[in-house]
Structures are given as structure tokens and as C-alpha cells.
Backbone:
């Protein structure tokens, strides 16, 4: 089934998913699963970057795309932290595969990423307004929350 999905709805779903991953990262950390906590923290950041990219019509399907999104957002906003904190997110994503960081390190990096997410939430849509709606041939919503 094909339906029209508005950019604002997609961006909001990315944000909801990012918030969901943030909660899951904290749950996994409390359970002592540093690998899953690391991956969920990366997921939280990536989803918020995807939301900003979606609103601007920027690519966001790959790691290089997300790195470029962080650089472009830093330039757009004048906030270099948006670019400078991206490697911390990548480091936790890598930790999922390499198990390189201690509990203290993962906690510290997660705290840094929550600040990053808060910064990304403040960015908001671009001044020129959202992009035009487009047709999507599968449901986007992944958290089970649907659009609201």
C-alpha cells in the first residue's frame, strides 16, 4: 500500500525512535550489558541526526552520510560540538563490536551523548520550512507508536 508521508512525521518518528533507544541504552547499562548499551546510545544519536537530515533533504543512509550531517549541522548552526561529538558516538558503536571500553568509559561516553542528543533536539527544522511530502511504500514507524 502506498501512502503520502510528510517529512515532519518522518522526522518526528526518528526522534521518537532516538528517545526510545536512549531509554533502552540506560536499561542495558543498568543490566550490565555494556555492548548493547553502547549500540543503543549510538542508535539514539544516529536517529536524531537522521531527523535533522530528513527535514533538510540530506542523505542519511550510511555512516559517512551521518558524519556529513553532523558537519553540515555544525556549519548551519555555528555549534561545532555537533561535529566534534560525532566521534564519541562512533566510538560507542565500535564498542558494540570490539568491547574496548570499561563500564566507567561507557557511562562517561553515554553522558556525553545525552548532551549531544539534547543539542540536536534544540536544532529544530531549517528556517525555510520542511521539505515537500513524498510517497513511501512501507510504514515507517518502528517503535509501535504510530504518528501522533
Residues:
Amino acid at each position: 500500500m502506498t501512502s503520502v508521508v510528510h517529512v515532519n512525521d518522518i522526522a518526528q518518528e526518528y526522534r521518537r525512535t532516538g528517545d526510545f533507544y536512549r531509554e533502552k541504552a540506560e536499561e542495558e547499562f543498568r543490566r550490565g550489558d555494556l555492548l548493547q548499551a553502547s549500540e543503543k546510545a549510538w542508535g539514539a544519536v544516529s536517529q536524531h541526526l537522521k531527523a535533522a537530515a530528513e527535514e533538510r533533504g540530506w542523505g542519511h543512509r550510511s555512516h559517512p552520510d551521518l558524519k556529513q550531517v553532523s558537519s553540515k549541522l555544525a556549519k548551519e548552526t555555528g555549534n561545532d560540538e555537533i561535529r566534534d561529538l560525532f566521534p564519541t558516538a562512533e566510538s560507542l558503536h565500535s564498542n558494540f563490536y570490539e568491547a574496548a571500553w570499561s563500564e566507567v568509559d561507557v557511562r562517561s561516553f553515554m553522558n556525553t551523548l545525552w548532551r549531544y542528543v539534547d543539542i540536536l533536539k534544540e536544532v529544530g527544522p531549517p528556517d525555510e520550512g520542511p521539505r515537500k511530502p513524498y510517497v513511501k511504500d512501507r510504514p515507517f514507524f518502528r517503535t509501535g507508536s504510530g504518528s501522533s
Remarks:
- The beta strands are 3-5, 134-136.
- Residues 132-139 have pLDDT under 50 and may be disordered.
- The radius of gyration is 15 Å.
- The longest strand covers residues 3-5.
